[in-house]
Amino acid sequence: MDDLYREVIIEHYKNPSYRGKLDPHDISFADNNPLCGDHIQIDLRVDADGNVAEARFDGHGCAISQASADLLMEFIIGKPLEEVKKLNKQDILDLLGIDLGPVRLKCALLSLKVLKAGVYGLGEASDDLAE
Amino acid sequence: MTFNVEQIRKDFPILERETANGKRVIYLDSTATSQKPTQVIEAMNDYYRRSNANIHRGVHTLAEEATALYEGARERIAKFINAAAPREIIYTRNTTESINLVAYAWGRANLKAGDLVVLTEMEHHSNLVPWQMLQAERGIELEFISVTEDGLLDLESYKKLLERSPKLVSFAHMSNVLGTINPAQEIIRLAHEAGALALVDGAQSVPHLKVDAQALDADFYAFSAHKMCGPTGVGVLYGKSALLESMPPFLGGGDMIKEVKLRSFRPNSLPHKFEAGTPAIAEAVGLGAAVDYLTAVGMDEIAAHEHEVTAYALERLEEIPGVKLFGPAANQKGGVASFTLEGVHPHDVAQILDQDGIAVRAGHHCAQPLHEKFGIPATSRASFYLYSTKEEVDLLAQGVYKVKEMFG
Question: B351 and chain A: CB distance < 8 Å anywhere?
Fold first, then answer.
């Protein structure tokens, strides 16, 4: 458990650096995890070169889902959207630094799915976006 | 037989096992599904080793034996809930399918646009979605008996709804989230006075309380084997025989027919009319064994034991700062303790408890509208059954303290 609830995860859950909304924004998308009702909204500002200039997340959920969203925002700021589109499950697990069972994996990947659905302009944060 | 929880625990081999990190499993998730005693596991095992065959039409020894076991279980289930006759016991897959059977077969034959079906705000999705689907298809109307802050049904709001002459009142006998035991007999009596039929979702009540279908005067009563020490894959719809006879069949196929021609069929008599195709035979046998097991222990003894453990759990959880409990006081509820812990998401609570072998459930427990009503996305839920002990409750309380510490 000390693995799963590493200090860094509890810290990002309790004191996130990128929680909030961006107004105005270039991209905004929100979706739920139907299993547990976790909800995440992500707002992005994109600069003229197609790089992520600002990123914020909002919503509610467990420590894993909220910490992974915070870590993901930190990670993508300054990166080109084309690179964001290529992020996958392993990138999130590397950010969290933990291994997760199939149920909690859904919590961890919610922010990635919402992010990619927003960047691709899709209507739904489907599972295959995190593959 | 006097009730002895240590003796009972020996009947449940799974309670001996350990989790990955060497902790003995503390199973506090019986509301989701109960564990199974050796008696049930062996009955199903014996069936496959000795008697397996397809039921009804066969004349050979095995087919006769399998049929006798399948129908014998039905007779004991009928007795268990005091149905007037075994033909009032329809085998389904589970409570959900039982409710869907009523929505499809009775609902489509009897409900038209504008007809009112009354549900409650504390229903499981299984008693909401089938009616929402019928609403979309037929234009029926749905109204909901409201739930008070204490987690009880507001009977005044119910009486107001009855003035609108609903066709059906469908409600949970016991809430899977709040644990509330609803006054089923009164709700049914009032429904009948208003000219409505009553369907009871008994998924949580039949495993834990003595249920008497005739005394309740329920028109339909639905429950699942897997929550009452039986296997998954089989459930029951009880219905008054006159009502079941008046209904068109549900699924079509083998066994539910008396006669088939190329362009027509005549349905079979009860209960077979509603049991199309080869059913879950071994599972029905397992449910029969579960009913025998629960009867031998005694439903009143089980209810009394659960009450004691639940009251203790509420007391222990309530004293933890930051814990908020949902649902009524122990004397109005069954073996369920749903709670939130301030500042910690229920999934995290469940995950950290799991590290000590403690199995609780976290989420909306298939009752999303109820959680919305209380303004929370999810709760953690500990639930108890005949094999639960106060020592397990102590470990749960210790575990919750540990969660608090971790999230500081």
Answer: yes
